[in-house]
Amino acid sequence: MNLQGAHILLGVTGGIAAYKAADLCSKLVQAGAQVQVVMTPGAAHFIAPLTFQTLTAHPVSVDTFQLLRDTDMAHISLSAWAHILVIVPATANTIAKLAHGLADNLLTSTALACPAPLIIAPAMDADMWAHPATQQNIATLHSRGAIQVGPAQGRLASGRVGAGRLASNAEIIAAIRQALGRTGKLAGKRVLVTAGGTREPLDPVRHISNRSSGKMGYAMAEAARDFGAQVTLVSASTGLAPVYGIQMVSVQTAQEMYAAVLQRVAETDLLVMAAAVADYRPKGAAAQKIKKADDDLTLELERTPDILMAVAQRRQETHHPAFVVGFAAETENLLANAASKLASKHLDLIVANDVSSSDSGFDVDQNRVILLRPDGAQEPLPLLQKTEVAERILERIAEWWR
Ligand code: C5P
To answer: What does the domain layout of the chain look like in residue ranges?
Structure first.
């Protein structure tokens, strides 16, 4: 993950949500990031600098006029050190100061001196957030490239319900990952990923589907985002939360996925078909719930369109997508089946995985795959978390692309 070794400067300002910044800080450190914290004097009323000092194993600075070491001016050295500046929570007051370039405390002077990308996670009462002054200040920060995460709707410290809650730490971390990856190996590329198992209706309450959890495809989408790509995820129904920072398109059936993909291939550089698309669907779904009878029931199934086959045909004319990846989930003859799909679907890469073992493949967090290329090259990867498998696959794609 690109948080490993990243220099994250965390600015904490004086709102009640400041306590949540401690959990964020801990999660970033656990993910391998180097975190340094700057607090405003207001923040130090809500949460002690010692909390962050302990979590980060770095001194925490609050005072502008305190030198870090000898003559080391904190606002200059911290702003040069940071790969990214993240302000969580960002109060209306700090947002206003940033918009106007004020430098009246260590955080605002550091921000003014900092060339790294800025992420702000506003948190305040709904009226303060909705005030035209705050909205104008936020617009000013956007126009300079600042990234805003939240605020969310919900219960506020005042007991009212409205917009002003701090975004979740999961969302803030995703925004940090995306911002850190903006110049990554797939920067400027448009990536289309499909994920999940399609559902083919039998009647209004029943469907035929498969055991795909969507986790591998979601991991591919997330990793592509963190490699700097502009990502669209066409997802069949999964139990997974939407991925931050990408365009989500929801579909149910193979036919809907076919339409969603074909509509977008001309503007796609890399297509990753990780979805488990049904090969057959019930012929003519019943309009009403099928009633049980004493006899057995025979279902007639018909073929669904093969999305990758259609993409291969389209590609002959448009030369898009430039790179197409398929997945082969097999229970026997893994390599032979994968190799024949690689050829018949005109793929640039097929990711073969044996879904008969219980520790990898369908419905679990880990996967053990073999990458196959049209020139016959094979690369087995060890058993890894799906997030790591996704990163390895994209690393290889970025290399082959060059
Ligand atoms: O043909 P099979 O389903 O075994 O091949 C798997 C690959 O083909 C996967 O990448 C899957 O997303 C894709 N596929 C497709 N259209 C279908 C069925 C599968 O594009 N109708």
So the answer is: 7-180, 190-401
Atom of ligand 1 nearest to the CA of 310: 20
Tell me which residues are annotated as active site: 210
Residues at CB less than 6 angstroms from ligand 1: 254, 273, 275, 277, 279, 304, 306-308, 326-328, 341
Instruction: Identify which of 50, 53, 78 has the alpha carbon closest to the alpha carbon of residue 64.
Output: 78
The CATH architecture one would assign to domain 7-180 is 3-Layer(aba) Sandwich (3.40)
String of DSSP letters for 154-211:
EE-TTS-EEEEEPPPHHHHHHHHHHHHTTTSTTTT-EEEEEESB--EEEETTEEE---
Ligand 1 centroid, distance to 199 Cα (angstroms): 14
For ligand 1, atom 2, name the residue with the nearest CA: 328
- Place domain 190-401 in its CATH homologous superfamily: CoaB-like (3.40.50.10300)
Give the closest residue to 199 by CA, choosing from 249, 240, 235, 232: 235
Would 7-180 and 190-401 be classified into the same CATH topology?
Answer: yes
Ligand 1 centre distance from Cα of residue 137 (Å):
49
Per-residue pLDDT of the chain (402 residues; tens, 9 = 90+): 799 999 999 999 999 999 999 999 999 999 999 999 999 999 999 999 999 999 999 999 887 666 555 556 677 789 999 999 999 999 999 999 999 999 999 999 999 999 999 999 999 999 999 999 999 999 999 999 999 999 999 999 888 899 999 999 999 999 999 999 999 999 999 999 999 999 999 999 999 999 999 999 999 999 999 999 999 999 999 999 999 999 999 999 999 999 999 999 999 999 999 999 999 999 989 999 999 999 999 999 999 999 999 999 999 888 899 999 999 988 889 899 999 999 999 999 999 998 888 777 787 889 999 999 999 999 999 999 999 999 999 999 999 876
Query: What residues pair up with 372 in beta bridges, in sequence order?
Result: 350, 378
> Which is the closest atom of ligand 1 to the Cα of 337?
4
Ligand 1 geometric centre to CA of 198 (Å) = 11
Q: Which atom of ligand 1 is nearest to the CA of 308?
A: 20
For residues 370 and 381, the answer to whether their CB atoms sit within 8 Å is yes
CA 275–ligand 1 middle distance (angstroms): 7
